[in-house]
Amino acid sequence: MALTGTKVSSQPVSNLFLGNGIAPVSDLHDAGVTVALGTDDGDCNNSVNMLADLKFAALLQKGRARNPAVLTAERVLEMATIEGAAAIGMADRIGSVEVGKIADLIVVDMGAAHLHPQQSTASVLVYQANGTEARTTVVDGTVVMRDRVPVWLDAAAERMLIADIDAASARIIAAAGLRTRTDHTWVSTRPI
């Protein structure tokens, strides 16, 4: 893969959710392969939460290799940023904050108690953050979320969008002939 310049995208939570196994990310890195980190979509990674998935990516490789140093927090952040950009052939335009690149970034509130102590920003983001810390999102230089509120969508439109998402999901489940998964269909398998 390294010889052909093949790029890989790893979606650790999606792979676990679907029972597809654990990608050999550290082996790919050792071979010189660019490995991006993604979340996949809501059908196989219900939270689609990149900050939370950073931890999964790191811990899976440590467990797989039985080596706590096999994948550093810094490398995981690179997988989510510049390696992701390289994987789609856009490292010259996105993936890092640099003059001349498209301004895509998030502002993270680092003040919450669960983010302390803060010995390393990379370690805090990878091992302590859970996704709720993202306060502001900028896409191509435009603020699209400020203080956790989408600026492109008013509250009524957001509620309508969420209702449309739920309705679309129900239609897909029905069209596929699947049974809905609700709390009402849950039956404990453990004798009481």
Automatic annotation (TrEMBL):
The keyword Signal does not apply. It comes from Mycolicibacterium murale. This is Amidohydrolase-related domain-containing protein. It comes from the Bacteria. InterPro entries: Amidohydro-rel (IPR006680), Metal-dep_hydrolase_composite (IPR011059), Metal_Hydrolase (IPR032466), MTA/SAH_deaminase (IPR050287). Pfam families: Amidohydro_1. Residues 5-144 form the Amidohydrolase-related domain. Keywords: Hydrolase. One of its GO terms (molecular function) is hydrolase activity, acting on carbon-nitrogen (but not peptide) bonds.
